Amino acid sequence: MTAKVMTFESQSGDVGKSSRARRLRMSYEEYLRWADEDVLAEWVNGEVIVHMPPKRFHQSLVTFLVKLLGLFVDFYDLGTLLTAPFEMRLSPEGPSRQPDILFVSKEHQDRLTDERLEGPADLVVEVISEDSVRRDRVEKFQEYERFGVREYWVIDSRPGQRSADFWVRGEDGLFAAGEVSEEGIFRSTVLPGFWLKLDWLWSRPLPDPLFTFAEIVGLSEEVVRALKEAASRGLAGE
What we know:
- The chain has helices spanning 28-34, 56-76, 133-147, 198-202, 209-217, 221-233; strands at 4-5, 9-10, 20-25, 41-44, 47-50, 79-83, 87-89, 96-97, 101-105, 116-118, 123-127, 151-156, 163-169, 175-177, 185-187, 195-197.
- It is α+β, with helices and mostly antiparallel strands.
- The strands form four sheets. It has a six-stranded mixed sheet, with helices on both faces. Strands 1, 2, 3, 4 and 5 form a five-stranded antiparallel sheet that branches. A three-stranded mixed sheet has the order 8-7-10, with no helix packed on it.
- α2 (56-76) packs across α5.
C-alpha cells in the first residue's frame, strides 16, 4: 500500500491555536488495511485524518459521560454504548468516523458488526478538542444530519469556550436545537428519562457518575445514603 503523507494543516475555525491534524491520502480499502484497533483516525472523501491524543480533561469528561450513560443504558437495557476508537461507517459510500461516544438502540443492533457500526448511531457525543472545532461543529454536524443520526451532542469544555449544544432530528429530517430548561437541564429524546444537568459538565472535579445516575433515576435517599456509606468504608469494610 502506498499513501501520500500530506503536510499538517490547521483546522479553520479553531480560535487562537495552531492545532493540526495529520492527513493521509488513501482509499477506504487502504484505510482498513492500514488502521488497527488502537488508531484514532477517520476516513473522509479519500483522506484519513489521524487525530492527536486528547488532553487529560477531555478524557476525564468523556469518561464521566461514558460511565453515566453506561449506567443508564445498562440499567434499562436500552442498547449498546461504545467509545472511540470504534468505526461508524455512515453509509456504504460515505465517511467513516470514530465518535467519542456512540449509542445504538436495541432496534438498530443489526447495524453492529464485530468490526464497525454500519450506518448511523442513534446518539453521538463529541467532546471538542483544540484541533476539532470545525470538524465537530460543521463537518460532522452536516454528515450526522445527512446520514440519519437521531441526536448529536457537541460539548466544549475548553477554558473560555465552555458550551454544550444538543441537536435533535425533527420530523423534516433536519437537526433542531434541543431545548435546555431554565435550570440548565437537557432531556434526551433518544434515551427517554435521561437528563443531563449542564453544571455537571463544568464541575471541577467532575461529579461521581454513580451518584449522578442515582439522581437521574430518582433512587431513594436511603439507597443513596447506603451507597455513600459503602464508599466511605472502602474495600473490605476498611
